[in-house]
Structure formats: C-alpha cells, structure tokens
Amino acid sequence: MPIDARTRFYLLLGNPVEHSLSPPMHNAAFAALSLNCVYLACPVDNERIGAAVEGMKALSTAGANVTAPFKEDVIPHLDSVSPESERVQSVNTIINRDGMLYGATTDGEGFYHYLGQVDPSYSPGQTVMVVGAGGAARAVAYILAQKGAGEIIIANRSESRGRSLSELLSEKTPLQNCSYISLDGWSMGEALARCKLVVYSLPFDGPEFSDALAKTAGLNSNQLLLDLRYKPERTGIMTEFEQKGGCAYNGLGMLVWQAVKSFVMFTGQEAPVEAMQKAAGIR
Fold it and tell me: Of the listed 57, 71, 231, 278, which one is catalytic?
C-alpha cells in the first residue's frame, strides 16, 4: 500500500536501532492486513529522548516501541502508564490516544509466551535466576513472579538496582522467596546449579557469569537458559551453558511475541503471527 497523507506511522525509539528486526516485522504485518501504516526505526541521542517523545504528539505519531536504553527514561515524558509499567518502571510500547501518550510493556507477556513454547514443562514453583536488572529484566522477573515462580534470584553488578528489583518482587507480587546476589559472588555457582531457568538480560557476555559457569560441576538437560539477545544467533553465554549440559535459546522468539502483543495494542486487530515470524527469519 503506497504511503500517503493518511498513512499512520509508528516508530522504534532507541540507540542503537540499526540492527532491529521490529521494522520488518511490523511492516510485514501491516502489509498482510492491507493497513495504511508504516513503521520506522529512529535512533535517538541519549540526551534527547524527552524531545523525541514530545515530538510524537507534534507529529501525530500513532505509536512507538521503545528499546534500550530508554525503557525507563521515557516514563516521565508520558501522560500515563499501565499499572505493570508503573511497578517495574519499564515501557516498551507507547500509544497515542488523541494526543495523550500511554505507555505499557509487552516484554513480560512476550517472554512468557515464548517460554511456554521452548519449555512446555516449565511450571510454577520453579527456582529462577534473572541476570541483570534493566527494563526487560524487570518486566520478565515481574511476570515470572506473578505466574507463580517458587524462588527468584536476581544477579546483578549494581547492588542497589538488584536489591531494588528484589524488593519490588517481594512487595508487589505473590512471590515469597526472592534474593539478590552479586554477579561475582561465591554463591553464583551454587545458585546456577539449582535453577530450573536462567534469564540472561545483559547486552554482553559477562565474564563473571562465565566464571561462575566454569566453576559449576555441571548442569542437566532440564535446566534452561534464555538469553534475551537475538544477535548474534549463538552467544558465548549460550555455548558455555550448553557445554555444561543445559539447554539454551536466544531471544528471537521473545522479540516476536512482544511485537505481536504490541501490534494488537497499536491496531486493535489480531496480529498475523506467521508473517511477523517470517520477517524475523523464523520459518
């Protein structure tokens, strides 16, 4: 469908965004449903995210997705946010409602849907480790706690951010057992050995996590690592986890399912999942 004066446009706000698969996924979905919409990736200077969000109103932008490093920074510039986004302080989806910008997060729901696909045996009551405490990590930890995780261990370099997330989960969810450990602490190896699920949310292969894996006697095939990155397809952390006996997946499936849920919020229509998966390289 040709772009014209009636075309509704959606943005991806982040830095960097050149690698993102969100534009091809959403544009494929618009084309599949013959919607007069377009989705554009917009790199934003770190100091200008407020101006970028305000510009959405001036340009009557229909909506946006938000990626690193702005999932928390956009919140003060929005008119309202969902209760979940308020609690976890993370927004990845913005909707323009007649000039009022509403923020929400689809990261948690997208992650949980994907988890059910790669590990149908996952059930409430399990011990989970979340490595990192950024926006996506908070959304994922929150939904795991809401869905009945037995224990969540937050492993993070920054003690203040790690403990803050642990306290949030303890106070705002049914979770009864939540703790913080340092990434380079002696307890990392012990914690890894007993976790059913490890969610890795750091943007790089952390040497502390690698060291903890190296010191672990071994994992079993029922232990799962989900690395939220999707590029490269195989990260060093994934390889190391599998070498110890566990199973590992990247975050491409989560990316697709959070996009599916964002698409529904954008358009009010059921998302053409197969078209979005194909655009993301999933056959």
Answer: 71
